[in-house]
Design brief:
The chain contains five helices and no strands. By secondary structure, it is an all-alpha fold. It has a domain of about 90 residues. α1 runs antiparallel to α3, α2 packs antiparallel against α3 and α3 packs across α4.
């Protein structure tokens, strides 16, 4: 099952960049009905606990964001003009948000909350490990 989620994450990133790969100045368009400004819609659970589903989505998003970062670095390396690099960098955060949404999270804000808060909660250790995420929580 984990393999299927990782495959989905990889496909989400690939589809995100399938169009317009030749034009490095093209910015990623928002997913229908979403935008980075919708980040404020994410509210962390009051108990701070992750569900198994959210942990799996987080794992998939991590894989997809790693691939996205690698693609962005490649685009930056191929870019020769400073203005073009600025355009590429300006679209990076939007693209990160889109990838998280396509995977099923509530955008980059939820991903960041899980990364910065939820993983530090020892009560989430078993759920995260079941999703394939190994932590140093005791």
């Amino acid at each position: 099952m984990k393999q299927a989620y990782q495959t989905f994450a990889i496909l989400a990133v690939a589809l995100l960049f399938a169009c317009g790969k030749e034009d490095t100045s093209q910015q990623v368009a928002p997913v229908q009905g979403t935008s980075v400004t919708q980040e404020s819609q994410f509210s962390p659970p009051s108990d701070g606990l992750l569900t198994e589903e959210r942990a799996k989505l987080y794992s998939n998003a991590s894989t997809a964001l790693l691939l996205l970062s690698q693609q962005w670095v490649d685009r930056m390396d191929k870019s020769t003009e400073a203005q073009e690099k600025i355009l590429i960098l300006s679209g990076f955060e939007k693209a990160r948000d889109q990838v998280c949404r396509k995977v099923g999270l509530a955008g980059i804000q939820e991903y960041n909350w899980i990364s910065e808060v939820a993983v530090k909660n020892a009560a989430n250790k078993a759920v995260l490990e079941k999703a394939g995420i190994q932590l140093g929580i005791k």
